[in-house]
Amino acid sequence: MKHALYYVRPVIAATDSRVDYDILSQAREFHDEGDHLKAIHAYIDFLDPDFRKMYGNKMGTKFVIPHGSIIVNIEVRDDWFYVWADFLNIPEQGKIAMLRQVAELNSGRLMLARFVMHEGKLRIEYHCPVEHTHPDKLVSLFRNICYVGDKYDDEFCTQFGATRVYEPQIRPYSQEEVKRVYDAFKLTSAKAIEDAAQSIKDRNLGEAWAQISMAFSQFEFYALPKGSLEAECEDALEALDEDLPIPERVAIATKKLEEMMARPMEEFAKDLYYTQNLTPLKGNATMQTLQEYFEDVVDVCKQAMDANDYPYVTTRFSHLIYKIYNLFEVSPAIHTLFSNVLEEVSNKPVQEAAQKLFGLGISIMNGDIDLDDYEPEEGGSSPSSEGADHGVDLEAMQQAMAEAMQKGDMQEYMRLAMEMQQAMQQHYNS
């Protein structure tokens, strides 16, 4: 490895996230005070301050929120809390094999919620008394439901012939963005394959493993792929952790990358789109998180710097940063901190890159970084769910969504929800 990774600007900046952890703290306080409905409202506001207005009834006791190809229903009734989401239509052929895997998910992937049969459909549901709805529990519950919904809908449709109850409302990337992502994937993957092959030849097996791993985690960082493309990346990253000799794992991952690189751009474009999301599927990274993850890497890289092993240092720190992006929701401030350094060392000689990346690690461990210095500048007053002028006729769109729901036309409901989210997002970014 002679040069650091290329930096590729992500399709969505971290600043686009509307999750607010200060509101989650308020939700915890409301719950501890025994005001459970107010705590549930605050939890929903934590996800997005407009969700209650967009998707809730006037009493604030029922919410119908799209997420990908599912619609998550939340209802508070008679001091009980109910959540359900119709997942897939069960096929006649392949039914037994599919339900066998569903049973495995019930005892494995799903934590609190469970799959149940409901009117010929596979449904995810959960209920409990309202006093058992601590906000941290809701964070885990909804992440788990949405993770399973995202991961297994494509898989069950492909393997067993199941069909979606609702087709996800998507907004494809522009042709220019697809081409940028596609070209970047070929560039970054070719470099990863070349670097890993050289590291295998030099018997630097740990570096080879990290270099080929970064091809997938970096792609997920800048492209945010969906559907089968995302699943392939996640499966490849899991396979790299299997109990096999490292050269064999690297060879398998290299073959997967080469297969993906050989696909035409039109195939890639099918899984490059924006969609509606209820909740982030990852935990939030803090400065404490960074220090915990950087500690061991800084220690081993100090020895490598003393030995002038710049390829090792560059590989370890680059891999760590993209691993953090892969595992956590990264705040705007941390994203700015990371992206500034990654862009600065992009394709630079490893000696220069190693010095800057090691300097970042030392600054993080010494507590020299104030994340407030990396917060993006506010562009006017922050949007609020209380009386904000979004440039969107919210009342008219809500009325249309209510009419669609009353007719039972949930596909139209999802279409209108996507249209409203898109209009509001454009307002926030303007």
Chart the SSEs and their pairings.
Elements: H1 21-32, H2 36-47, H3 51-55, E1 62-67, E2 70-77, E3 80-89, H4 95-107, E4 114-118, E5 121-129, H5 135-160, E6 163-164, E7 170-172, H6 175-201, H7 205-223, H8 227-239, H9 246-261, H10 265-269, E8 273-275, E9 283-284, H11 287-306, H12 310-327, E10 328-329, H13 332-345, H14 350-366, H15 394-406, H16 410-429
Parallel strand pairs: 9-10
Antiparallel strand pairs: 1-2, 2-3, 3-5, 3-6, 4-5, 7-8
Give a short synopsis of this structure.
The protein is an alpha+beta fold and about 425 residues long. Helix content is about 60%, strand content about 10%. It contains 16 helices and 10 strands.
Supply database-style keywords.
430 residues; Yope Regulator, Chain: A; Four Helix Bundle (Hemerythrin (Met), subunit A); 4 domains; six-stranded antiparallel beta sheet; 16 helices; 10 strands; globular
Class derived from helix and strand content: alpha+beta
Described by its quaternary structure, the protein is: single chain
The first-to-last residue Cα distance is: 41 Å
- What is the succession of H and E elements? HHHEEEHEEHEEHHHHHEEHHEHHHH
Helix fraction bin: 55-70%
Instruction: Please count the helical segments.
Output: 16
Mean pLDDT: 88
Largest sheet: 6 strands, antiparallel
Computed CA radius of gyration, to the nearest angstrom: 23 Å
Q: Residue ranges: pLDDT <50 for 5 or more in a row?
A: 379-390
What portion of the residues fall into strands of 2 or more residues?
5-15%
Shape verdict:
globular
* Total beta-strand segments: 10
CATH architecture of the largest domain: 2-Layer Sandwich
Under CATH at level 1, the class of the largest domain stands as Alpha Beta
